[in-house]
Amino acid sequence: MYGFADIRGDIELIDLMLKSMKIADMGKVLLSLGHIGIFRALSDAAHLDAGQSATLLALMQDKDTGSVEAQVKAWKLDGMWAKAFSLLPRLYGGREVLSDARGRLPDLSAVGGALDELQAVCDAFPDNEIHIDLSELRVDNYHTGLLYAAYAADFHDAVARGGRYDGLGGYFGRARPATGFSFDLRSFIGRLPAVERQPAVSVDAEDAEAAREAVEALREQGQCVVIDYGIGHNVSEELAGRLKRRTAFGRS
What we know:
With about 250 residues, this protein is α/β, with parallel strands linked by helices. It has two domains: about 5-190, 2-Layer Sandwich (BirA Bifunctional Protein, domain 2); about 200-250, no CATH class. Helices cover about 45% and strands about 15% of the residues. The protein has ten helices and eight strands. A six-stranded mixed sheet has the order 2-3-1-4-5-6. The longest helix has 17 residues, at about 5-25. The two termini are about 45 Å apart. The model has no long low-confidence stretch (mean pLDDT about 85).
C-alpha cells in the first residue's frame, strides 16, 4: 500500500494477511509484532553513530542480552540510554509488554508514538493471539516502523512477514509512505485443495482466430487451451463442435 502513512493502512494489510491464511486453512495463527522506531529513537537520542547502531541491531537480533549490556558499557553510554538498550531484548511477551514498556523506557515522543501504533494493532485484533518483541528489529535497513510476522503451527518459520518501509521508493524516483507483506507461497501450495488436471485442448494456429470465442469460453471454465504454432494439429473435436454450431447460427 503506497501513499498512506497512518497505522490504519498497516492494520488493513495485517487483516488481509490473516484472512488469506484462514482461507488457506493454516489453523491457529500467532501474530508477532515489533517496531523499529523504538530502537531508532533511542539510537538517535543516545547519539550513536551508524556503526554503533548496526552493532546493537545485530546483537539484539541474536537476543544476546549479555553482549548488549557489555557493548553499551564499553561505549560508556549515559546510564539512562545504556539501561534502555539493555532492556529492549527483555521486553517480549503478550499484550502486557506495551504497558511495561511505557513505564520503563525513556519518555521520548517517538517511543510513545511507536507504542501507540502497536497498541492500535492489538486493539484491532482482540481475538488473535499476539506476541510482542521490541527487540525484533530485522537488519535489512529499509523498514521504518511497524514490523509483523505470522506463524502457523505446522511451520518452523514465519509464513508471512511485513512492515512499513516509508521512503524506499525514493531509490526509484518517488519517495512516499509504504507498507506491505510477503508470503512464502511454498507454505500455501501444499494446503490448497487438489484439482484434477484435464487434458489440454490444442488449437492449430491457423484456426485460432476463428475459434477465439470458443477458446475464451473453455478457458473461463478452467480448461487449458493451447495454441499450437508448430505441430499443425487441427482444431480439437470439442472446439470443432462449437465452431460448427456457431456456423449453423450464422455467427462464424
